[in-house]
Amino acid sequence: MQAIIPVNLPENSYNIAICAGSLNQLGTTLKPLNLGKKILLVSNPEIFNHYGETVINSLETALFQTATHTIPAGETYKTLDSIAKIYHTALENRLERSSTMVALGGGVVGDMTGFAAATWLRGINFVQVPTSLLAMVDAAIGGKTGVNHPQGKNLIGAFYQPRLVFIDPLVLKTLPVREFRAGMAEVIKYAIIWDQDLFTHLEEAPSLDNLSSLSAALLQRIITNSCQAKADVVGKDEKEAGLRAILNYGHTIGHAVESLTGYSVINHGEAVAIGMVAAGEIAVKLGMWTQEEAKRQNILIEKTGLPTKIPSNLATQAIIDTLATDKKVKAGKVRFILPTQIGKVTIIDNVSSELLFQVIEELK
Amino acid sequence: MQAIIPVNLPENSYNIAICAGSLNQLGTTLKPLNLGKKILLVSNPEIFNHYGETVINSLETALFQTATHTIPAGETYKTLDSIAKIYHTALENRLERSSTMVALGGGVVGDMTGFAAATWLRGINFVQVPTSLLAMVDAAIGGKTGVNHPQGKNLIGAFYQPRLVFIDPLVLKTLPVREFRAGMAEVIKYAIIWDQDLFTHLEEAPSLDNLSSLSAALLQRIITNSCQAKADVVGKDEKEAGLRAILNYGHTIGHAVESLTGYSVINHGEAVAIGMVAAGEIAVKLGMWTQEEAKRQNILIEKTGLPTKIPSNLATQAIIDTLATDKKVKAGKVRFILPTQIGKVTIIDNVSSELLFQVIEELK
């Protein structure tokens, strides 16, 4: 099973290649892309331990000169300091403008490697080899790169497109189940905002809460359809001028919950799951979405083993205050992405604080 | 006297507005550009002392909400740390994606503000108000933004276009004479690489070594023609894929000299002046350029009060070694921009180390 999904952009179009068991063909896949001689592979120690040898062998067999830089795993290392360390390795290995950085890892590694590639020598080549489900279906596609600011997630960054996104679904076998589920949150998001058909398939699956319960065909479908949804949206709005905002479904309250819990207690996918439940409830209360469809969404989220409740120790007002520092704020107004039916959402910026307060309270 | 020079790019075209005495009209000029409500003005203390009040009054009269961030003057502050401080002020003032950063200052302020704007919330609006001749004719145009790495100038950065470059030549009255001359180095560069006519005008001027010896008309002409040259080149090659490399005339050895003297003993324009003399000599020795025209170039450089000699305390081999870490290195080869006649240059990447060694030795 193999799929090539083009991401069509005004400049810098690229492909997403999805093929089970293809990791050892990375080098030959990159060879025709004119990526220079030198590759700096950026990863975290655990992922590198699992897949570093395969990747380096593949790159060196294809005659790339390869250097490696590892960053400790986790959102807490997603800082400007970590980027400075990548710069240091880039300098040591004399990377040139024609050289390439390859991100082998999850979203954190991908976001940071992309930002380092975007800003080293004012931009060198960049390839994404995502190893988490979340990164495969979301973070690796669309050119959002960056790091966190002590006071907010992803406040520092750049739009910078990879030359290729290379996905081998088999690497998910080493992914902890909690992270698998986090990725499924984004999959469900695509189903709600863009792909009713994917939603039905997820509903029909006997089980969704761990990788081994998925057939190879369903896994390939989940990744392919999700990547296609993201490619469709990004292709229509590269820099989040309009449509792309719908990808933030579940992310508004999600980001606030994630931020207030210090990016560690609750992971991104879990926060998005909670955020989707909240957004669904807001849509229902505004009379925009049926109770019944919202319930189907919530059942699917539960079936995946994801949380649907806001941690009760978070103060409701603190969540509302945090929303005001979100990047998505425009002219002081917080934007919400709200479903109108499964497969369709709309953008609203006049949700009242009272309604917001009520929904957050109810979900604790 | 007023000139509007369009910089035409595939995306993100913008204008350069040049008008003597226009600084107090900045606000009304920005108003129609859809730059949001909030402006973060970035400057250095001295420039801000001279022009801050005029600029802020102008912006606030046009109903912009204005905050200010100052960075100590000088290349030594052109660091990632200084950028982190701009981020901090941006956060404090809750800049949004639709907000704008305005750089009021020389090249260092412009490069840093541009990089901060390029990377805050993945890119917000950015306006250049250059106050040095060097920044007016070079740094502010073309979208090169960034900071220095401890081991090399401008190794960290991004291509990010301003929404407007706003030039009031009258602000040059507070520019130290040495910095005026540094700007003139880039003016001479444009004359050599692009504009034979400008070269003749400079030759005919009775004096060039300080601002007060220039007529208002000549100053306007110098700035306008230089901006036009840069706009022409950048419009044809936004991201330095080819033609734009010619703007690096004098910069190859220039950067090495600047870097080895710690970016302080010799300023950028002086380094470029020395680099142009060196490049001219290489071209002559390769039989590509006439001795006579090279001499005319060198006389013009001397007339401007700029240096034409490499500091004798710099080891020749150290200069050659430093060239290898330059961003312009491609597949290990150092590229040189060499004149073939006044107004025309070509790109060469096979200058031998022996020739290089000889030319550097001769220029000490």
UniProtKB/TrEMBL annotation, chains A, B:
Residues 183-329 form the 3-dehydroquinate synthase C-terminal domain. Its EC number is 4.2.3.4. It is found in: Cytoplasm. GO terms for cellular component: cytoplasm. CDD domains: DHQS (cd08195). It is an enzyme of class 4 (lyase). It holds the Pfam family DHQS_C. Coiled coil: none annotated. Zn(2+) binds at residues 186, 251, 268. It catalyses: 7-phospho-2-dehydro-3-deoxy-D-arabino-heptonate = 3-dehydroquinate + phosphate. Residues 70-181 form the 3-dehydroquinate synthase N-terminal domain. Catalyzes the conversion of 3-deoxy-D-arabino-heptulosonate 7-phosphate (DAHP) to dehydroquinate (DHQ). Belongs to the sugar phosphate cyclases superfamily. Dehydroquinate synthase family. This is 3-dehydroquinate synthase. The lineage of its organism: Bacteria, Bacillati, Cyanobacteriota, Cyanophyceae, Oscillatoriophycideae.
